Amino acid sequence: MSPARRRHVDGRLARAQETRRLLVEALLALVDEGATAPTTRQVAERAGVSLRIVFHRFRGTQGLLVAGVALQSERHRSILFAIPPKGAADLRIRVLCRQRRLYFEALTPVFRVAQARPDAAGALRNLLAEDRSRMRHQLAGTFAPEVAARGAEAGDLLDALEQALGWASWRALRDVRGLTPAAAERALAYTAERLLG
């Protein structure tokens, strides 16, 4: 490929990526403003592009919503930093539960919108599976001494921690029970203390 042709292709790719980013940012802005079911037309208008571009880049609302959840996850992933497996377990629990609160709350608005669309369920499952894996790895590292001390039951403890401190528990506490973020965080910490105690 000639240098001129390569520059042309690279420019097209850069413009396509920028358009994708603008569309996802437009979606997230609408969700932040309270839109519970933003349409592709609203997103296109907010991004300043044609409706056809939304379908060309994302094949409709489903792909756009999943991209929104993925972008929020990527943006806030640094919240889930590694916690050294030393010191008092209750302090590690508090730090981990605060991280989870901040992370889950950052993703919840766009996740709720995406989850309301049945056609996005499969892609969301895949995305959340990656998050679950990352969070399980963090649990195993943060509580390595406590998990190892359980011997043959180590895997069971890690499974219980993963379930108790994961997305599903957070959503049940927030959306089903109606707890505030602070109260939901306390509930996670209480459960973790009992499991690890």
**Radius of gyration from CA coordinates:** 20 Å
List the domain count as a whole number: 2
DSSP helical segment count: 10
Q: Classify the beta-strand content into a percent band.
A: under 5%
What is the oligomeric state here?
Answer: single chain
Determine the fraction of residues in helical runs and give it as a percent range.
Answer: over 70%
Q: What is the number of strand segments?
A: 0
Low-confidence stretches: none
Counting helices, strands and paired strands, the structural category is mainly alpha
N-end to C-end Cα span: 64 Å
Dominant shape: elongated
Describe the structure.
The structure is a single chain. This protein has 197 residues and is mostly helical. It has 2 domains: 3-59, Arc Repressor Mutant, subunit A, CATH 1.10.10; 73-196, no CATH class. It is built from 10 helices and no strands. The radius of gyration is 20 Å and the shape is elongated.
